[in-house]
Amino acid sequence: MTTNTRIKLNQYLLLFIATLFIATVFTYCASRRTAQVKVADRSSRRMLLRDEGLSQLSYIDIANPATNWFVPVPAGRDIQLAGNGRVLIGTGNGYEEREIATGNKVFELSSFPGTISARRLRNGNTLLAGVNWQGKQGIVLVEVNAGGNVHSLVAYPGFDYVRLIRQTVSGTFLVTADEFVFEGNAKGEIIWRAKVTGLPKPHAWQALRLGNGQTIVSGGYAKNFQVFATDGRLLDTITGPAEVNPNFYAGFQILANGNYVVTNWQGHGPKFGASGTQVLEYTPKGQLAWSWKQDPAKFSSLQGIVVLDGLDVNLLHVEDANGRLAPVSTGR
Questions:
Q1: DSSP label of 163
Q2: pLDDT at 239
Q3: What's the rounded Cα separation, in Å, for the pair 249 and 222?
Q4: Between 20 and 30 A from 194 (CA), which of 185, 240, 271, 331?
Q5: Which residues of 85-97 are buried (b: 16+ CB within 10 A; e: fewer)?
Q6: What is the pLDDT of residues 88-128, one digit of tens each?
Q7: pLDDT exceeding 70 applies to what percent of the chain?
Q8: Separation CA 236–CA 259 (nearest Å)
Q9: Are 116 and 131 in contact (CB under 8 A)?
Q10: Given phi > 0 = left and psi -120 to 50 = alpha, else beta, which region is 228?
Q11: Which neighbouring-strand residues pair with 216?
């Protein structure tokens, strides 16, 4: 091999090494940029929050606090994107719809005293829940149309407690009933159930069906998420760490990335704003991925949340086959 040939080979080798080095640096920088974007997404997160302690609804834009608003609302449970730029909240007499832009009330149904929670269904009707109600015993679900007329009614006797209801993609209902969570059909039959562990009366709050058939439940005073198998066995729990002061896991949402964002309610009344960290985001493996510490001067005890990022507020949103919020066009 001649000297010139060796020189050329060395030059090619150096060029290859330099190219490989540049590619490695570029890939590393790109991954860093991706990580920074994810953090930035959270730092610019927009949320609708329901504060039970203050009976307050609020809009929070973390990056643009000048746009935040806080309005008093009636006591009640649940919160949902209803479409047309509105948020739906359950009240003790039915439900209200409010403008997301301002918090102003634009619609109210108040002819169902005894309502415990309200949820808009994918067909555009609204499901109201109560106990020993509407002439029936046990947990009673009443489906009403836009005019407030009863479309259907189903009762599950033998229960004296109910919180939030979620309709599955098959049309059944996931119901939280204190120490139980069950799935019921339109005939009033219970086709699946599980027992929430940790306390005799945990006041379990909300349940969602996951894409793998498992069911995740915010366990209320159990201070955790509980994940159940298709046969009702407890598979996993998610909570903590201690510094967030887990107290009562209430309304939650499964994000597009599969993480769970939950409100960590701290107590009844107006004096809990400094207690705990009240918005927590967990990975499905139970790691705390993000948290948001509420301003104690503006909040007391959060109970419901909708993370708006990536959602179209002009469309109704209900849970899909993976338990994530997905848009539905109802024509309402």
A1: -
A2: 98
A3: 8
A4: 240
A5: bbbbbbbebbbbb
A6: 999 999 999 999 999 999 999 999 999 999 999 999 999 99
A7: 87
A8: 15
A9: yes
A10: beta
A11: 208, 227
Tokens 């504060």, located at residue: 51
Residue 58, Cβ density class (10 Å: 0-12 exposed, 13-18 middle, ≥19 buried): buried
Say if CB 216 and CB 323 are below 8 A apart.
Answer: yes
pLDDT digits (tens, 9 = 90+) for 56-99: 999 999 999 999 999 999 999 999 999 999 999 999 999 999 99
Please provide the average confidence, as pLDDT, over all residues in the chain: 90
Question: What CATH number has the domain bearing residue 51?
Answer: 2.130.10.10
Between CA 134 and CA 112 the distance in angstroms is 9
CA angle 90/92/96 to nearest 5° reads 40
Q: Say whether both 256 and 158 belong to one domain.
A: yes
Alpha-carbon gap, residue 247 to 309, rounded angstroms? 26
Same domain, 28 and 59: no
pLDDT at 39: 39
Three-state secondary structure call for residue 249 = strand
Three-state secondary structure call for residue 101: coil
> Are 181 and 167 within 8 A, CB to CB?
no
| Position 12 pLDDT exceeds 90 | no
Q: Based on the fold, state whether residues 35 and 79 are members of the same structural domain.
A: no
Range of the domain at 200: 45-328
The share of the chain scoring above pLDDT 90, in percent, equals: 86
Q: How many helices (H) and strands (E) does the chain have?
A: 1, 26
CA atoms within 13 A on the CB side of 98: 26
